[in-house]
């Protein structure tokens, strides 16, 4: 028996149900498991719509390349070679399965509607070809159909969702599977043929590092080490970030106020179930307080809530969940948007955050909210353009949490912040960075005389707040006029 394991956002060996099942397929049969990762290039339908997963942003491409480099020898030690391809997964997966003579294809589930539709299409194609196909859980604490309201529908408000999910029993994590026999000559020969035919490629040929190579290697790489081993090392230090989390999580200058695990969860180097069990153990052992553990798990639940919303609503990165926001009178201004992207707005906390993002591929969550609020409210720029910038530059931007969080700030999403809640960056800085340590770290020219830092903000915060509220009233009037 030969099993093809199609890897996506699950670049790990610990607590990996699809990998464990694949190894069990062949353990006593003398067969083989082959891992496959595809740089997916989705098809486009007749109307120009995307079919399949959202294309990876530049930051995720860099991270995945380095994480795959680290994963390959870990899988090889389990007897599982890792191979690569590029193209439409609906063409690649069946072709690789056929070329290997695979009996089974396994993968971890995806939840965005277009990804689910693609996976269902591929499963149908495999079954029609006589190949068994199985999807497995692995990205969430609970499946979207397992956490529902009393009438059986999805939650649209976070707090009751959080309360219900808190009552769900989380299954224990799976150990790394025992090694299986490596592929024999027949499978190795088949892999060689697929490489000769150009269907399989070497990792560098996927082009994941083609864009901004100096940025990644000279700046972002100084802050991160992708890979499962580094993820597990970070997990071992997790108590340091969770301790006093409830009190310090909004302090951007506090290096210990977060765990740094978000890109690990995004790439699947670490399962959310493993993270959940780790923080619960830390609370039982007295390494962290029960209150801090609950505060951190609440953030895991927000991630979960985002994915459950995404399961039910396609294209949240470009379509407002609240339909009335489709007519919101944004004022697209490339000069303002570019000042925001480059940290040149003259508003210190936001500019420090945008510089942190550009240099490290990450930004503190409190500052993300403030920067997003400035962009789509004070500057009146379309929220989806800000979301796209975060998607391209954040190492932890995933297909659910990134757009759902942007829509929360913009007021157009589920359980959204009231539109009149417009974060004042100066007030936020005074509250969460009162000594200016965060600004001094990431925007040193702001505290240096004659540095050339913008002499004045691009907007007046008081005036622009009023304009944002006026725009909101104009949207409501436009919607009422259509009724």
TrEMBL record:
Molecular-function GO terms, alphabetical: deoxyribodipyrimidine photo-lyase activity; DNA binding; FAD binding
Protein residues bound to FAD: 245, 258-262, 296, 396-398
Cofactor note: Binds 1 FAD per subunit.
Enzyme class: lyase
UniProt KW keywords: Chromophore, FAD, Flavoprotein, Lyase
Xref: PANTHER family: CRYPTOCHROME, CRYPTOCHROME CIRCADIAN CLOCK 5 ISOFORM X1
Name recorded for this polypeptide: Deoxyribodipyrimidine photo-lyase
Biological source species: Micrococcus endophyticus
């Amino acid at each position: 028996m030969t099993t093809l394991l199609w890897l996506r956002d699950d670049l790990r060996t610990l607590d990996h149900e699809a990998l464990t099942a694949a190894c069990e397929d062949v353990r006593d049969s003398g067969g083989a498991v082959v891992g496959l990762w595809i740089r997916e290039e989705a098809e486009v339908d007749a109307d120009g719509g995307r079919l399949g997963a959202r294309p990876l942003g530049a930051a995720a491409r860099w991270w995945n390349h380095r994480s795959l480099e680290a994963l390959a020898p870990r899988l090889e030690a389990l007897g599982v070679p890792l191979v690569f391809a590029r193209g439409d997964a609906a063409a690649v997966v069946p072709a690789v399965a056929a070329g290997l003579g695979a009996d089974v294809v396994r993968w971890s589930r995806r939840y965005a509607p277009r990804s689910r539709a693609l996976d269902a299409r591929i499963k149908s194609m495999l079954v029609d070809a006589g190949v068994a196909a199985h999807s497995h859980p692995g990205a969430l604490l609970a499946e979207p159909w397992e956490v529902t309201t009393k009438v059986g529908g999805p939650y649209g408000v976070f707090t009751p969702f959080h309360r219900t999910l808190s009552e769900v029993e989380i299954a224990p994590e799976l150990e790394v599977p025992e090694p299986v026999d490596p592929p024999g000559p027949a499978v190795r020969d088949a892999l060689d043929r697929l490489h000769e035919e150009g269907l399989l490629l070497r990792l560098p040929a996927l082009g994941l590092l083609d864009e901004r190579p100096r940025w990644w290697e000279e700046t972002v790489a100084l802050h991160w080490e992708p890979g499962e081993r580094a993820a597990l090392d970070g997990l071992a230090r997790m108590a340091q970030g969770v301790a006093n989390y409830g009190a310090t999580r909004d302090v951007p200058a506090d290096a210990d106020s977060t765990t740094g695990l978000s890109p690990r969860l995004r790439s699947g180097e670490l399962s959310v179930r493993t993270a959940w069990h780790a923080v619960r153990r830390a609370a039982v052992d007295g390494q962290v307080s029960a209150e801090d553990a609950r505060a951190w798990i609440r953030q895991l639940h927000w991630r979960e809530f985002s994915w459950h919303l995404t399961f039910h609503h396609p294209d949240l990165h470009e379509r407002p969940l609240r339909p009335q926001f489709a007519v919101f009178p944004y004022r697209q201004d490339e000069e303002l948007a570019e000042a925001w992207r480059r940290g040149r707005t003259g508003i210190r906390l936001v500019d420090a955050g945008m510089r942190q993002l550009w240099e490290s591929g990450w930004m503190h969550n409190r500052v993300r909210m403030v920067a997003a609020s400035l962009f789509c409210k004070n500057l009146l720029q379309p929220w989806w353009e800000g979301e796209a910038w975060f998607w391209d530059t954040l190492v932890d931007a995933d297909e659910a949490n990134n757009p759902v969080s942007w829509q929360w700030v913009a007021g157009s999403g589920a359980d959204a912040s009231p539109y009149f809640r417009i974060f004042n960056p100066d007030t936020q800085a005074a509250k969460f960075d009162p000594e200016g340590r965060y600004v001094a770290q990431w925007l040193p020219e702001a505290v240096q005389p004659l540095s050339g830092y913008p002499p004045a903000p691009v907007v007046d915060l008081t005036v622009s707040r009023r304009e944002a509220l006026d725009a909101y009233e104009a949207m409501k009037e436009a919607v009422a006029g259509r009724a």
